[in-house]
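Hi R.,

Here's the chain you asked about this morning:
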Amino acid sequence: MPLVYLAALLLLFEDWLWDLGMRLIRRVVAWPPLRLLERRIVALPPYAALCVFVLPAVLLLPVKILALLAIASGHLFAGVAVIIAAKIGGAALVARLYVLTLPKLVTLAWFARWHGKFMDWKNHWVGRLTAGAAYRRVRMLSATVAATVSAKIRATARRALAQLRPGGLGERGSRRPVRLLRRFIALWRARRR
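And here is the predicted structure, written out as tokens:
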């Protein structure tokens, strides 16, 4: 039973990474050189598209191995940070490349057959997992935790903004940091004109 909860947690985490990656990539591809690169990727022939699709996994493998070596040599924080960054960045890149290359990849008979089998298998197991009570409990718990964390972040941001408003620091609070910040903003705006 604990493995079912772990699988549910991993599924939610993977869904979150996929959504985060897609949002991140949508913002990044607004840059004109990347739009041009995307158009070139879409125009690739099937086997070149397959190489482009596999490329992130090949390039990120050495990075993850180096992160594991960093962890093994006592640099736990740096190693874990690199693995998390590689996972998020890799998920974002693979998600976008999947969307861009899939129309060409399914023109390959062997890819279309294995992709169809994999998607059927995945949908079967994801369906079984999401229909279970463990998934519903983990999802409810994660939504509760996310709402709590989000509320705390909003409250902290409100307090920080209240301190920047005139009179926000109270009678005994120093106004100097606020004045310096406002002066910096005014200079920065004047310089941009």
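One quick note: The radius of gyration is 24 Å.

Cheers,
M.
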